[in-house]
């Protein structure tokens, strides 16, 4: 109801002025320091403080900006009150001004906060006083701060609950604290409780194993799981199970829990009680607000089907799929909201996709920001967006991924900006990697190759034509930088092999999506019956295919030329080895196809990788003429994800190779060791010949492996169970088959780059009498 208007006359205004004057005169008497009327041109004669007990006057003076001799400024005085309060040393701060012959006297009247005189703990057995003191963000002598006192209470509670004391209670004596400043925490630890069983009742349609994935509480398992109990966690688990049921279409599901303790209160069984209710089905799917795309076109995009359960994940995916389709067609601000409405028919839900299309936009300018030294073209070529074409949001996300995968930038974002009608500019913002390159010195030791040192200079944003203008630019790595090329120099001296290699990569040859690689290398290694030394070079062109039946594959053609020297051949070596003695000049042409759909290059957990190649030796001249066909397939399957998002992964692998023609002994296939057949020595699986049964290699190789890896500790240490099997034959046949089973551990340490460590124990269960076994195999690499 509106308030009635009242006409104010002159008498009413006079009465109002008198009332205001009376209140202003009464305020000083009601409380707070009195403030005298100060002339406009007054000067401050003195600044005083009242109420200081433990806080020094010099400290208080250092906080305020009001000072003797300065002009009186009420705004500065008010700000000084706020500054004194901000020190947290005072509970109240007020000010008073008095006028004297010497000037204005400003007095700050303060009341100090009580101080902590002691911090004590009562009832703590599990943790010492010293450990608990570290949890409290206060020290003796600090001003009393009730917020920090509560922070200490919560920190102590967390420590106990993390240790399995789920019924702990922590309080503090507030009255004692206010009266004396003594901070006393009373702790009732209760028993240390371990969860022995987690069971479900009423889960008729969803198995307990599936529900366990939603539950953070875990049963005690010696060494691996502590089984700690926290009732807050159990309550959250019940909510998570209920959410999972509703996401599966049981929209009326309710989940509670019951705690059953042992007689001594140290062990616990948790029972989650489930009332599933009806599983709702989709009665109809309709669309509102769509004018650009028709209903049938949209219906084909979504995984929801009528008369099927209403699944939350599919509902969300349906909205995303429709929004992505609009985003690909220039409707970059389109929004889709799935709405569920219960039907009059029991057990059914009607779904409506509410669509706000917005306007269609085209690409305007492409603006690059943040690249201080990297050339614009290095960034622009990662984009598949061009001015005047329809704006495609999917391409912007792909561009962000492409930029990050170059490893030239720590951050990259591609966003539409601007306010012009029907046009949006593309803003590409990058943050360049702070490192111009990596200089790494390290070592590795393996059962295959012994101890190997490593000195690496790796420049990932190299520019062959950015020559230095001075020696200082060269020394400080300010030259040869910015074109997205890569230069890598590596020296590997070792006890059993020595290697030097230099690699240059231009990912966009002549600004085309064509990768160019150029390498030169030197390699030498002592074999059982001879020494091998190689000097050569390689040049290759590669391209990622974007259309046709080989879309998403990577193709490469490489030319190789090298000289192989075989010397120090033992007198009684096999004939094939003695025939290879001396120098051999090789040339080859190699074609390779690769499709990699794994999720991580170093620790893949899902996806597959296919590689196939054929290399023809002697096509460009040389001393030998033969061909090598190789292929491999690897698939990774995530079988389980634990509460810490760690994955247990099954990996299946197969590798095959076949040589056509008269292949020299140093280009044949061998097997054994880590990365090949564990349980056998490096190159210990091979056809043999000669008086000493020398390994002479084979023209056909087939290796198959299955490996199950699972988390052991933290995010880095993983356990392995595996079976390796295969053979190496003189021809395309299977006459001998080897099988080894075993287990081990693998560790990936991010120590200036991913560093793998693997230790494996494998036992051959099917072998050939001439094979060389090696039960323990290992690989250790480190860079520093």
Identify the notable features of this structure and list them briefly:
784 residues; alpha+beta; Ubiquitin-like (UB roll); 6 domains; 16-stranded antiparallel beta barrel; 3-stranded mixed sheet; 14 helices; 18% helix; 42% strand; extended; disordered N terminus
Q: What is the CATH architecture annotation of the largest domain?
A: Beta Barrel
Number of domains: 6
CATH class of the largest domain: Mainly Beta
Q: Let me know the CATH homologous superfamily of the largest domain.
A: membrane protein fhac: a member of the omp85/tpsb transporter family
User: Strand order, biggest sheet?
Assistant: 16-17-18-19-20-21-22-23-24-25-26-30-31-32-33-35
Radius of gyration computed on alpha carbons: 38 Å
Q: What percent of the residues sit in helical stretches (DSSP H or I)?
A: 10-25%
Task: Say how many strands there are.
Answer: 35
Q: Describe the sheet with the most strands.
A: 16 strands, antiparallel, barrel
Q: What portion of the residues fall into strands of 2 or more residues? A: 35-45%
Q: In DSSP terms, counting alpha (H) and pi (I) runs of 4 or more, how many helices?
A: 14
What's the average pLDDT? Answer: 87
Give the structural class.
alpha+beta
- The CATH topology of the largest domain corresponds to Porin
Shape descriptor reads extended
Low-confidence stretches: 1-32
How far is it from the N-terminal to the C-terminal residue, by CA?
78 Å
